[in-house]
Design brief:
Blueprint: H1 3-16, E1 66-70, E2 84-88, H2 103-112, E3 118-121, H3 139-150, E4 154-157, H4 173-176, E5 181-182, E6 203-204, H5 208-225, E7 231-235, H6 258-275, E8 281-284, H7 294-303, E9 307-310, H8 317-324, E10 332-334, H9 355-365, E11 370-373, H10 381-390, H11 392-399, E12 406-415, E13 421-429, E14 438-445, E15 448-454, E16 467-472, E17 485-492, E18 495-498, E19 513-514
Parallel strand pairs: 2-3, 2-11, 3-4, 4-7, 7-8, 8-9, 9-10, 10-11
Antiparallel strand pairs: 1-12, 5-6, 12-13, 13-16, 14-15, 14-17, 17-18, 17-19
Length: 519
């Protein structure tokens, strides 16, 4: 595979999503508010969403619809697809280590941690594959996925191709035999007790062997996990340290020029996009310190209806602009080490507040769908529990607000001029983030589906406002006898996921809401 093939693939992918060839290159900075990223995810079975005039001469639906039911916001912790507090099982060091405790016990405690509804794992490539053509997982990968399945949680992951925090190279030995390593200009000085300051740092050369082996890895993983009930989303692999799009504090990159670097990482993105057809990708909104075309990668990510992430929240204005003004249907993951160990390591701001709380509140300001429960290089459940015990307010508020929290605020009933009954379901979003996909509403009984349809992608938006969808009932259907129920689902990349409604009122055991006149 040569550079000409890379270019052909990149141009074809650009055309497929409606990008002009000129946009395949560097995307200049721009304000994101109301920026045209193209159409959102496709909406099937779109419900009529208004207007619903009640008075002549425009009362074409007949009599004035009347409110027959409403809900109030609930504060419960939700375990829903597309959102959640995310417990880190591994960050940079590999398997978590707690002296005197087995690996399985340590991971079990982390996955069971009640505030976390998702788990995150970031293995080196060599932790998943030892030889060409076959996956061979380290124990902590297998235990994490098994425990997540056991406790009804999902896993987010990235495979690292370059990790400065381990003395061993992140690449498997069979890859290293064919992939040279390059040293960049500059130096990185710091605490010599930390592994990152105990060795020199090199970047792998992205030759045809590395690209080919990477594609094989993604296809092998996707064969097992694309659309799996245990995988939530996958981080996009970018240039540099941890795959986050930079090699700071080193200068530049190890490509002939920026164009070659950008082409390469668009190719790597294309490989992941082709493999993970039912799983969203998360691309880091990293400023392009290393000059490798990050802006083009982020632009492609949104146009392909994938999601964003940021590895630090108290950072540059550019990243905050992007997260806060992303399309409402684009999910966002905020990663930031909340703490770095037990209480003896906590830092405080000038007002005496723990900096962990500062980070949490700013993750809310950015409208996060996900937030990292991460004690950096001292990963264990006890550290998370201690922080929550000492400083519960911020975490509890985040748990009750993170992501999208939808409910039917209003339910109206009406009858049109031909005598057909209809319901108008007025959905609201009490969360801090938009709906990261398309919301489907379904009315059903024990006998089956009565009617079903979708709101526009990203609706209802966060921060208030009712998005209403009209649902006609079959002629003669009794909507008020206690048999009709409403359920909500989220469609992302062709997969439907149940959505728990964040209501104060009681729901049925299956999570549905019984439709009945309550006023």
């Amino acid at each position: 595979m040569d550079r000409r093939d890379f270019l052909k693939t990149g141009l074809a992918a650009s055309a497929a999503i409606g990008l002009a060839p000129s946009l395949k290159g560097w995307v200049p900075q721009h304000n994101w508010h109301k920026y045209d990223f193209g159409p959102g995810p496709q909406v099937k079975d779109r419900l009529y969403q208004g207007p619903f005039p009640s008075y002549a001469p425009e009362n074409y639906f007949g009599e004035e619809p009347m409110v027959i039911q409403y809900t109030l916001p609930g504060k419960q912790l939700l375990n829903a697809y597309g959102m959640g507090l995310t417990t880190y099982v591994s960050g940079d060091y590999g398997a978590p280590v707690v002296p005197g405790e087995s690996l399985e016990t340590t991971i079990d405690k982390l996955i069971r941690y009640p505030l976390g509804t998702k788990a995150y794992i970031r293995p080196n490539w060599r932790h998943l594959q030892k030889k060409e053509g076959v996956l061979e997982f380290d124990d902590y990968w297998k235990i994490t996925l098994d425990k997540a399945a056991e406790y009804g949680k999902r896993v987010i992951f990235r495979v690292m191709l370059c990790n400065p925090d381990t003395l061993e190279n992140a690449l498997p030995d069979f890859v290293l035999k064919k992939v040279p390593l390059d040293r960049l200009k500059g130096e990185w000085k710091g605490d010599p007790s930390q592994p990152r300051f105990q060795h020199e740092h090199f970047q792998p050369r992205y030759n045809e062997y590395l690209i080919g082996y990477f594609e094989e890895l993604q296809n092998l993983l996707a064969e097992q996990y694309n659309g799996s009930a245990v995988i939530e989303c996958v981080d996009t692999n970018m240039f540099g340290f941890w795959g986050e799009g930079h090699a700071w504090p080193y200068e530049g990159h190890n490509f002939p020029n920026k164009k070659a670097a950008e082409d390469t990482f668009l190719k790597i993105y294309d490989i992941q996009q082709a493999a993970w057809t039912h799983v969203p990708l998360l691309t880091n909104v990293e400023p392009d310190h290393s000059g490798v075309g990050n802006s083009a990668l982020v632009d492609r990510t949104i146009r392909d209806h994938n999601w964003l992430r940021r590895d630090t929240i108290l950072v540059d204005t550019e990243s905050i602009e992007q997260l806060c003004n992303r399309p409402s249907w684009c999910g966002a993951f905020v990663e930031n080490a909340m703490i770095r160990g037990n209480a003896s390591t906590y830092k405080f701001d000038s007002f005496g507040r723990p900096t962990g709380d500062d980070i949490i509140y700013h993750a809310m300001d950015a409208g996060a769908n996900y937030y990292s429960l991460w004690s950096f290089h001292s990963i264990c459940a006890e550290n998370l529990e201690e922080y929550h015990r000492l400083y519960p307010e911020a975490l509890d508020e985040l748990a009750s607000r993170i992501g999208y929290r939808v409910r039917p605020s209003y339910i109206w009933h009406g009858q049109d001029k031909e005598g057909l009954d209809y319901l108008i379901i007025g959905m609201v979003n009490d969360g801090i983030a938009g709906v990261p996909g398309v919301l489907r509403l379904t009315l059903f009984t024990d006998e089956g589906v009565v009617c079903s349809g979708c709101l526009d992608a990203g609706y209802p938006e966060a921060g208030g406002g009712v998005r209403s969808g009209m649902m006609y009932l079959p002629k003669g259907k009794d909507w008020n006898n206690g048999s009709l129920r409403l359920k909500v689902e989220l469609e992302v990349k062709g997969m439907l996921h149940p959505v728990p409604m964040a209501v104060a009122e009681p729901l049925n055991p299956d999570g549905s809401l019984t439709i009945r006149k309550t006023l």
